[in-house]
Amino acid sequence: MRRFLLEISAHMYKEIKYIMRDPAWLVVFSIFPYVMAAMSCLMGIASSYISPDAFSEFQRNTGSSNAMLYFLTGYGIMFPSFLVVSVASENTGAEIASGTLEQIFVSPAKRELFILFSSFPYILVAMLGLIVSYAPLLLMGISILDFLIAMTMVFIGLLPLLGLGVLASNLTIKVKEYWSAANFLQAFLTLFSGFAYPISFLPEWMRLVSHVLPTSYAVELVRKYVEAHSISYSNLYGIVLMAIAYITAGVMSFRLVEKEGERSGSIYSS
Amino acid sequence: MGAYTPRKLKEALCPALISAWSEVMIYFRYRASMVIGLITTPMWVLFFVLNFNLFLPAAYRAAVQRSLMWSFIFLEMFSEAIWNLGMSLRRMKEMGIIEHVIATGSLFLTLLGRLSRIITDTVIYGFYMILFFYIALGVDISIKSPVLFIVSAMMALASCFGFSSIFSSISYGRRNVAALINILQFPVMIASGIILPAWILPPQLKIIAVASPLTYPFDLMRSAATGEPTLLDFHLEFLLSLLSATFMLLLSKKFIDRVEKKEMKGEVPGTL
User: Fold this and answer.
1) Looking only at Cα atoms, what is the longest distance across chain B?
2) pLDDT tens figures, A174-187
3) Does A183 touch chain B (CB under 8 A)?
């Protein structure tokens, strides 16, 4: 057990050292939700030049009277999600590019732990960024306890994405253009998760697709809590089940890709 | 100084032509990325369309979607310019090829050659987006004034080149150029009427838009495509677009030459 924990902490320590090299990314992750929320609000302002009751229309469609808060809650989850789904591929891609993936693979370290826990510190970084993104909630009369509960909900919501990130990373080993799978996942999450609009606003087929994404449950969970102080337990259970399913699928598919890659030698080709 | 014969001109432009050719080759090298780009572009478009639709009753959506289609094409042009050119000097420095580029040609012309990639990308994604908006959303894709559209597109390209090259020469000594671009690109695009038409921006943003050299060529391009009103009087805006494109090109040459001089003197940035 001690060896297991030591190995996890070593992977995490290495990544934290990398993150500390360039903390500017933390600033980017904190600012980005504000930029996007401002842009979505600007769409509303621009729309009011065309249709005078644009913001009433917004309230009708979303049930929220505060557009900035509505968008900030969604975009606050969007950017940490981007980070979590792309980081495993980026790490694997960087190891392949610098030729250190082989070093990790010949060391006695468990490969699954590398692929899973080298991503974990980025969730913590994303959470730090989220504190800044969600800070206005505190100014809008939300108590510190509610704020912490909302943060915990986002944290739980991000866990299944670790599994999706590992699945994307497996494609990295096969395709080599490591950003491709992550770029696809980011666009997919953006369209179907309801970061900037309610899922009910989507056409039926899109609503069905959104059910397989943990982010759509997480966004709804946090919004409901922030706006109505109610916890949707069905969403919470859905996320926990997805975390188990996606992480297991990610690790299992990694084993398959690794086994096949070692047999054919494709895992070590650039 | 001898007269400029066609041969001499060809020799002088050689670094730009070589750079143009290699950038297009590199662009088509990453096929998986291209395929993913073509798949994800409609996803991003739909996301913003849905975002806009939250505010708009159905009757108004068609006109907005037409303007949004052009916004996406402008966004592609600016985004490709800032990511490709904006990071170019830093990348050259990190890869250790900046000295090689300076020794064998001109840094300014090499960067100018990179426009080939921006043009290729904008044309591919531009046509793809027009097709998507036409087929999926039934948007009117006609261009009101094609000649003015092409002229203003060239001015917009020159302004994007100038802006991105200046950014690149200012930031090439920094480690976090990518982070800076991420922070900068959306506010610049909003304040320059690239994402939303300049004439419908709130008054406070309109003041910034008037001061941004990127606003005029893009505003003119949008007006030429859709017939929307221009921010200023048409003739004045055309003149300002021309001046801004020329000014940005000249200023970027100054900035890039300064980097070249620094490199030749051995004043290497501290963070590598």
Assistant:
1) 66
2) 666 777 888 888 99
3) yes
A57's tokens: 């229309």
Angstrom distance (rounded) from CA B9 to CA B12: 5
**Is A184 in CB contact (< 8 Å) with chain B?**
yes
Q: Hey, CA dihedral for B189, B191, B196, B199, is it positive or negative?
A: negative
Interface test with chain A among B54, B181, B185, by most A beta carbons within 10 Å: B54
Model ipTM value: 0.86
Contact criterion met (CB < 8 Å) for B183 and A31? yes
What is the distance between the alpha carbons of residues B193 and B221, in angstroms, rounded to a whole number?
11
Could you tell me the pLDDT band of residue A100, with boundaries at 50, 70 and 90?
confident
What are A195's two structure tokens?
């970061």
Q: Name, in order, each residue with C-beta under 8 angstroms of B106's C-beta and a sequence gap of 6 or more.
A: B15, B260
Cβ–Cβ of B43/A197 closer than 8 Å? no
pLDDT, tens digit (0-9, with 9 covering 90-100), for A30-74: 888 888 999 899 889 888 888 888 999 999 999 888 898 899 889
Contact B190/A38, CB-based, under 8 Å? yes
Residue A131 CB neighbour total at 10 angstroms: 14
Answer for the pair A15, A121: CB distance below 8 angstroms, yes or no. yes
> Shortest CA distance to A161 belongs to which of A97, A113, A125, A212?
A212
Domain extent, residue B204, equals 7-265
A24 contact B CB<8A: yes
Closest CA to B157 of B91, B235, B220: B220
Neighbours of B88 (CB within 10 A): 25
Q: How many angstroms away from the CA of A73 is the closest CA of chain B?
A: 15
Q: Which residues of B touch A172 (CB under 8 A)?
A: none
The rounded distance, in Å, linking the Cα atoms of A79 and A190 is 10
- For residue A197, the chain B residues in CB contact (below 8 A) are 50-51, 54
Does the distance separating the beta carbons of A201 and B51 come in below 8 Å?
A: no
Residues of A in contact with B65 (CB under 8 A): none
Q: Which two tokens stand for residue B200?
A: 């419908």
Q: What angle do CA A237, A238, A241 make, to 5 degrees?
A: 85
Looking at the structure of chain B, the number of domains it has is 1
In a domain, B1, yes or no: no
**Cβ contact A167:A253 at 8 Å:** yes
Give the model confidence (pLDDT) of B111-156 as tens digits: 999 999 999 999 999 999 999 999 988 889 999 999 999 999 999 9
Q: CB of B83 within 8 Å of any CB in chain A? A: no
